[in-house]
């Protein structure tokens, strides 16, 4: 009789364990949804992919580009006192004014 | 003992060399973005985010140290790509070298293809160890001689000079990719190669740079319907008509170029069925394949997704024949790995020379090797602490449970900024090149 009691208890325990075991992935998903309740259901969907395809996009359009250029010119003024005589503001930015990213003229440290 | 030994069963790995700066502050440009041995293993090329290529050459084995294979020293370095700005699309084009692929050597010069996001270049690397001397009309420094001083004629001769290695761009393959190039692969016919971006794959002739054929196009008519992108592509090592490409959804398609000009219809589709019970928000992201590599034999291919490495038999599409867990303990960290974007890290993988062992990188500057025959795996670390010459690398272990043994490192202590994304295995010997963020480690098999 004692065996039967033990048997029932064991199976109950097993049942409890099964209920508690969630895959670690699903537990992580629950954590993420708790932090970001507005997260869409489709994770790998077109939003994520389109962000990937648009990597490197610097300006939304030419208006955005010119605004950014104007901001840059304003920022540069205080640090370049020698250019006080230059007229700014009346100058329409052109592609030539876009700050070119410096090319790496420094040799690779792997070759050092 | 030359030739490939078996994997982790009896091979011990020793530190050989490390290249790069020791500073803690890593400049963006110094981040290594690709590593590739050439077909003989004599040359090792690296590309970085600054658009530079550095090629190392193995010294011939010295008689003094017959037990040690030659060291790799700088052979050539050049600026392959420069940053560009596409004014029409307002797109910044990074100079980062995404891939380097060597051409099989046909003559004295070496050729390699290097690519950034948009442009592929064919570079010729040639040696000059002689120069002509004894011109009649010119002095040795190039100035022209006064004709009146020329009284006799002589035949110029080639005299030895210090070795000079020159890299020159022979072809520029541009303007063929709207999206970002992720792979290039040279065909076994040595005449053509493919380049793949997120949505298209193009076929080029190495001699012709103003034309390329589009062979795969998965761009949907309506971009709102976009569900997957191409993540990697490779030509079969000996069947010149066959190539594969992998997707962000974890599938691999094998295509036969004899079937049609446009290979949108795959010949084979390799996909492991997913257990619907295990599906989670992260499932698709971690199933995205970051690298695909054919075995040297051409019988198998290997894919790398976020948590595992899978070996597929080309004759069986339904599931991989082998699956190796790289760092399964990260499954319970996916939430934070998604938040810090590490879940999108693209790890590569590689085969050893006889296809008996596969290798891939992980975090904390760990890298893993899986011996397919002996069913053993090992975790090793690339760090300056283990960088005494010829010191044997000690296997590392990550502890997942509560009890952490001595020498084990807990999952929470792993440094996710120290990632090994790029590794390469010498085609013939047990020599490996492992790239940390800005350093290149070379390890060799312990020979006795």
Description:
The complex is a heterodimer of chains A (112) and B (448). With 112 residues, chain A is mainly α. Chain A is 51% helix and 0% strand. Chain A has helices at 2-20, 24-35, 46-53, 62-79. The longest helix of chain A has 19 residues, at 2-20. Chain A starts with a helix and ends in a 33-residue tail after the last helix. Chain B has helices at 283-287, 334-339, and strands at residues 13-19, 32-37, 43-48, 52-58, 72-79, 84-86, 91-93, 99-102, 110-115, 120-133, 157-173, 183-186, 192-196, 200-205, 208-217, 230-235, 242-247, 252-256, 268-270, 291-294, 300-304, 308-313, 322-325, 349-351, 357-361, 366-371, 376-381, 398-399, 409-410, 422-425, 431-435, 440-445. Chain B has a four-stranded antiparallel sheet with strand order 1-32-31-30, with no helix packed on it. Chain B has a four-stranded antiparallel sheet with strand order 2-3-4-5, with no helix packed on it. In chain B, β20 (291-294) and β21 (300-304) form a beta hairpin. The radius of gyration of chain B is 24 Å and the shape is globular. The N and C termini of chain B lie close together (9 Å). Chains A and B meet through α2 and α3 of A and β5, β7, α1 and α2 of B.
Largest sheet of chain B: 4 strands, antiparallel
Task: Label the structural class of chain B.
Answer: mainly beta
Helical coverage of chain A, percent range: 40-55%
| Strand order of the biggest β-sheet of chain B | 1-32-31-30
Mean pLDDT of chain B: 93
Distance between the termini of chain A: 81 Å
Q: Sheet with the most strands of chain A?
A: none
The radius of gyration of chain B is 24 Å
Low-pLDDT windows of residues of chain A: 1-8, 15-20, 77-84
Protein name (chain B): Serine/threonine-protein phosphatase 2A 55 kDa regulatory subunit B
GO molecular function, one term (chain B): protein phosphatase regulator activity
Subunit structure (chain B): PP2A consists of a common heterodimeric core enzyme, composed of a 36 kDa catalytic subunit (subunit C) and a 65 kDa constant regulatory subunit (PR65 or subunit A), that associates with a variety of regulatory subunits.
Family (chain B): Belongs to the phosphatase 2A regulatory subunit B family.
């Amino acid at each position: 009789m004692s065996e039967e009691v033990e048997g029932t208890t064991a199976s109950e325990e097993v049942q409890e364990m099964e209920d508690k075991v969630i895959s670690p992935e699903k537990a992580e998903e629950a954590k993420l949804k708790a932090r970001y309740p507005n997260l869409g259901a489709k994770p790998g969907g077109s939003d994520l992919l389109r962000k990937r395809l648009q990597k490197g996009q610097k300006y939304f359009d030419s208006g955005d580009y010119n605004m950014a250029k104007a901001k840059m010119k304003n920022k540069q003024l205080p640090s370049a006192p020698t250019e006080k005589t230059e007229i700014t503001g009346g100058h329409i930015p052109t592609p030539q004014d876009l700050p070119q990213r410096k090319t790496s003229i420094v040799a690779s440290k792997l070759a050092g | 003992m030359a030739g490939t030994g078996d994997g982790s069963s009896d091979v011990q790995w020793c530190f050989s060399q490390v290249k790069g700066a020791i500073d803690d502050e890593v400049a963006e440009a110094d981040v290594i973005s690709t590593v590739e041995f050439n077909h003989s293993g004599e040359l090792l090329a690296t590309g970085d985010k600054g658009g530079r290529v550095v090629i190392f050459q193995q010294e011939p084995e010295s008689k003094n140290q017959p037990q040690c294979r030659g060291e790799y020293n700088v052979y050539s370095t050049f600026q392959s790509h420069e940053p560009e700005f596409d004014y029409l699309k307002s797109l910044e084009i990074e100079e980062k070298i995404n891939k380097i692929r060597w051409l099989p050597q046909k003559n004295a010069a070496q050729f390699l293809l290097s690519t950034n996001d948009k442009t592929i270049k064919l570079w010729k690397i040639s040696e000059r160890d002689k120069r002509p001397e004894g011109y009649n009309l010119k002095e040795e420094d190039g100035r022209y001689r006064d004709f009146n001083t020329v009284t006799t004629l002589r035949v110029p001769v080639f005299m030895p000079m210090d070795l000079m290695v020159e890299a020159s761009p022979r072809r520029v393959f541009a303007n063929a990719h709207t999206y970002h190039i992720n792979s290039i692969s040279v065909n076994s016919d040595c005449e053509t190669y493919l380049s793949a971006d997120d949505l298209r794959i193009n076929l080029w002739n190495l001699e012709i740079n103003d034309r390329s054929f589009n062979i795969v196009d998965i761009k949907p008519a309506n971009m709102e319907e976009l569900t997957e992108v191409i993540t990697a592509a490779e030509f079969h090592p000996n069947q010149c008509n066959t190539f594969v490409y992998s997707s962000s959804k974890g599938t691999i398609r094998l295509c036969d170029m004899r079937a049609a000009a446009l290979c949108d219809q795959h010949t084979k589709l390799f996909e492991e069925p997913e257990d619907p019970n295990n599906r989670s928000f992260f499932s698709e992201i971690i199933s995205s394949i970051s690298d695909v590599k054919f075995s040297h034999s051409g019988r198998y291919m290997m894919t790398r997704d976020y948590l595992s490495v899978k070996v597929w038999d080309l004759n069986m599409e339904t599931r991989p024949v082998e699956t190796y867990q790289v760092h399964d303990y990260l499954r319970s960290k996916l939430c934070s790995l998604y938040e810090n974007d590490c879940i999108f890290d693209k790890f590569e993988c590689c085969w050893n020379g006889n296809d008996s062992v596969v290798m891939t990188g992980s975090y904390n500057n760990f890298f893993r090797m899986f011996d397919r025959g002996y069913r053993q795996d090992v975790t090793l670390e690339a760090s300056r602490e283990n960088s005494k010459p010829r010191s044997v690398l000690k296997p590392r272990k990550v502890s997942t449970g509560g009890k952490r043994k001595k020498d084990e490192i807990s999952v929470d202590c792993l440094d996710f900024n120290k990632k090994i994304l790029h590794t390469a295995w010498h085609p013939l010997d047990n020599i490996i090149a492992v790239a940390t963020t800005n350093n290149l480690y070379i390890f060799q098999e312990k020979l006795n």
